[in-house]
Amino acid sequence: MIAPRVLAIMGSGETSPTMIKTHRRLLAAADRVGPAVLLDTPVGFQENASDIAARAVEYFRDGVGHPISVARWRGAHEDDVTYEEMLTALRTAGYVFAGPGSPSYALRQWADTPVPSLLAAKLRDGGCVTFASAAALTLGVVTVPVYEIYKVGEEPRWLPGLDLLGAATGLSIAVIPHYDNAEGGTHDTRFCYLGERRLAELERSLPDGTFVLGVDEHTACVIDLEASTATVEGLGGVTVRRAGESHVITSGTTVPLAELASAGEVVAPAFAPVEDVGLGGSGPSDQHSPLLAAAAELEARFDAALAELDVRGAVAAMLELEEALVAWSRDTLQSDEPDRTRAVLRSMIVRLGQLTDVGPLVEAMLEIRTRARSERRFEESDWVRDRLVEFGVEVHDTPEGSSWRLLS
What we know:
Largest sheet: 8 strands, mixed
Shape: elongated
CATH superfamily of the largest domain: Class I glutamine amidotransferase (GATase) domain
Strand order of the largest sheet: 3-2-4-5-1-10-11-14
CATH topology of the largest domain: Rossmann fold
Number of domains: 3
Low-confidence stretches: 264-286
CATH class of the largest domain: Alpha Beta
Radius of gyration: 28 Å
Oligomer: single chain
Helix content: 40-55%
CATH architecture of the largest domain: 3-Layer(aba) Sandwich
Distance between the termini: 60 Å
Number of helices: 16
């Protein structure tokens, strides 16, 4: 049986529920080659690198249903044993995964090490390399130093990339993940936080024959090197951009690599031209976040249930939202989306509590019933009691007065 040779590029969401199906499919094929390993170098500079790696391991174990071990290499400060253990893990792995962090940091640590050649050998001889977010930026002939440009304010420039794509496909590509990012709201954070102005500036300095491959968030571009095809999976699309002209491959589409290379020169049927989407709104777009979109949908269901006094329906919506939070808790993307979703859930709890605080209402109805009984309006008294029972309130009459309890 031919060993798989696959390069998967994820725009974001690599440890979220949106990419579970893709990971499972790729892992099932890669298991024939060797175990799965997480290369943690891109995030090695962060103080919480161990926590991020642990959450990724938990995601694969509990979410994907497949074990993954950490091939730890956070930089040249690591000891020799850790370094050799990392290299051994890469050599024997069937599935190599890397994700968030800094592309420029990762490239500095991998320079003058066998890591790039080991990854290239995996794609040449058999195995699957899945790089996402920051790690995905390193795959092309050039790389965007996104932290330095977006956070520090340095002038837009390219860094030399690993060019694993070029070695595997013969194509000269600059990979841009987070392509449809909308966190900026009123300022342009598309194209991995570059925006149109800076991407256009960088595009003019690309090496001859190089094009941009943009991968949307929660989207994967799976390149099957045996079949010479590229398949788009997930919630968004993959954009081929040459000299400012963009063409998109929609999710669920498979195209030959030859067509990927020619997009923008001769538009193939699989591609559609893309207009500049522009900007609007006053804050981040929830439509680009599956978690926030789920929160909005479940909040609407909760509101509808509350309007009908359907407590069970309201509770069901709350439980689904809590399950979504648990599923997304393993995602290594550091954003405020979980906090915003928890705020929605807390609001639901408060509003349901206000609805179900029936004590004052029951006491008022019992007072009406007591007055009716004292005035010998027994039919009205019985009617109040029966209505309370219908709403789950059991009434007990004693010589000292009436008491009540909620029926279970």
